[in-house]
Write a structure and sequence with these properties.
Elements: H1 3-16, H2 20-46, H3 51-72
């Protein structure tokens, strides 16, 4: 699942009342997605692929990393 899809899911569930367990599941999904994007980015860069694709992946990684930070900043009440 893409980082943007996970972000939308997280935001919806957060509005509706997210559990700690669900936040951790989303966190792990985002972390895995970022790892896959980084692997793909490395391969694209090694093969001198299209710069637009490289920039697109970097944007996804950045978006995912921001979401991880947002999840990390949650407070339990």
């Amino acid at each position: 699942m893409s980082c943007s899809s996970l972000k939308h899911r997280f935001e919806k569930e957060r509005r509706d009342g997210i559990t700690f367990e669900r936040a951790m599941e989303i966190y792990q999904d985002v972390d895995g997605s970022i790892a896959a994007h980084k692997t793909e980015l490395t391969e694209l860069m090694q093969n001198n692929q299209n710069q637009d694709e490289i920039n697109h992946l970097r944007a996804h990684i950045e978006e995912g990393e921001k979401l991880l930070q947002e999840i990390k900043s949650l407070y339990l009440h």
